[in-house]
Amino acid sequence: ANPSTSPNNGLTDVDCRSRINDGGGMGSSSAPIISMAFAPNGRFLACFTSNSILTVVSTTFESKVLEFSTSSGSSSPPRSMAWCGEDSVVLHWKNLGVLLVGPYGDWLRFPYGEEDEMGTAAVVGSRVHGDSEVYLVQEMDCCRVLTSNVVELLQRVPPGTADLLRIGSIEPGALLLDASDAFDSGSSNADEAARSITAREGLLSEAILDCVAAAVGEFDVRVQKRMLRAASYGLHFACKDETYRNKTPGRPSHEAVAFVRASRKLRVLNAIRRQGIGFAMTSAQYDAVMPKGVVARLMAAGRPSLAASISEYLKLGRRVRDYARAMKASAFVSSPPESSMTNSQIAEEAIRIIQGKEKGGKKTQDEDEDSLSSPPSSGMYASVALAAHRSGRKGVADLLIMLEEGPEDKVHALLTIGAYADAAAVAAKARDSNLIYTTICAYEGGLPNNEEGKSLYFSGIINKFPTEAVNMFTSYYCRLGTLAVGDANPAVNIFLRRQKHTEAGLMIAKKALLVESMEGNKREKQKIEMLKDASKIFDVGGKDCAFQKACVDEQIQLMAEQEQLRLAYGSNEVAPPSSSVTSTIMSILKHGAVDQRSAHKLNADAERIAKKFKVPEKRLWHVKVRAFSESGQWAVMRNFCDSRAKPPIGMKPFALAAIKGKQGEAEIMHYVGRMQDKTDADDRYDLLCEAGLWKKALEEAVKQGDGRKIANVRSLCNNPDVQRLCDKYI
Fold first, then answer.
1. CB within 10 Å: which end of the chain, N or C, has fewer?
2. Distance between CA 1 and CA 5 in Å, rounded?
3. Distance CA 605, CA 46 (A)
4. Residue 184: is its pLDDT beyond 80?
């Protein structure tokens, strides 16, 4: 149904209770369902009703598979219910035990937690189960029963195994098993029974595979060996059959490969099923988890030695084997050592374990060549060293960590054990900026958060860390110090510790300018104090910092002069904060347009500032021309120009200022007319064209006898009279 249109928000009521109880029978009375469990494959649903009826239906509720009454054993509901594989249901009652119900209504009872009148525990075969809690864990092909004493697996006998072991079975596997048993007992009928199987084509192959499959599904080692012997017995006949050999020439047969794989799998399964390990697992679960998953679970369960042996035996991937050996070595260095073993001996034994060369270990030639050609994976020595460090064996950790070749793993291991300087050296050698930064941050985090810790932080990095780390450390705090909200003191502290007085003074000076630019004239005193500190640092630097000290001292004097000028004239427009010498002189001269009574005094102050800070004469003249023109003091600018018969900057700057200020022709010609040198001819023509005085420009061009300049006037001028004159001269 559509969720947007359905009145039940897209949910459909299938009325499962009526469908389960539909059709009469034991469940004809509409009893409520009190427990439900889905099969592992999701195709069936087991329901237990209040009238003690177990019903198994399909998940579509269209067919009923099983209906089983438990009222004869107990009228109370079971404490738990689960599936055993995909065709059996397991139920548990406290005093009744565990009931296994098969697909056709067959059942078996296993007394768990059952007590007699004297309170003694019930005995099931060789198992003794006391009055303890029982838990059912549903798994893919079995049901795991957990008590406080044991963990057992309930599993329906696989059909293949049942066919082999059924009395009077005529299946190919059963015939091969009987022939093998007869051969083991020395019976003369063994060969005849085996040849009867080979009489039909394909029957022997089927028999071998059946025995192999049955062996893998068995838990009893004796039965496993019996079935594998039968498969091996059949393989002997298969190898003698020329037709069978021609199926896979030059390669092992499919049956032989299956036999080897099954043998290896059973060897692993039997190893982990041992009572000392207690890692019960079925063949299907092994296939689902895969060998790598088995190794990982063994390591998580604290069985690294077995995990390493299995990974080597199954020849798993190199990373898996290396990791398993590293875990085994970690367990070795963490365990209580023999009293006679020194740190070097423990480290040597751990190295042999990592390299797969333990004492007493047997290796094939191929395995030896492989171990020699490929070194251990990155991180193995580091992980074992950390395990030794956690166990208090610092000497072993130091010896092992020296052998680690992976920079990242080695750096993190060194940081964990507190060897920050060594970690920084490794990171610097690897030229990895991320590792260097990580090392610096870890070192800072390992120190106390107080003044003493900060002092140790700076001195430790500068004195103990490599140059690359110190440079990164310096760059980081320099960048932080140049920010508006950053603190420049750490960077200054670093530079002073490194005897770099120039950089330290410049950092303070830059920070002072940044404070000023951010907060205007409200912090002028603080800025002056910071500049004085910078001057002191430059003074300590001696001759190498003489130029920087002179610049800072002049800046302090300029700021003092600016403050006096602002106070004298009562305006912030005169010598505003953060202005340069040129800007200060210009602001003084511009203020003359506002306060004309103080114009003479302002000019005198401008001259004094220029003289004090050694402003060149030509530069001062350019500043005055610009200041007078921008403030509209044209008369003052004319008088200033006339004060010298030949100004040091020439007349062109005055004429350009008049043109940009849109002054009249008379004002412009006052300056252009004084440009009488031969070298000024081109400048006169350009200035006249710039001012739009086309007739005078034409006259100048004619005077120079330059036809290109006349044509230029003709093209730029829009006056018809001037254009006719140009045509005449052209």
1. C
2. 8
3. 105
4. yes
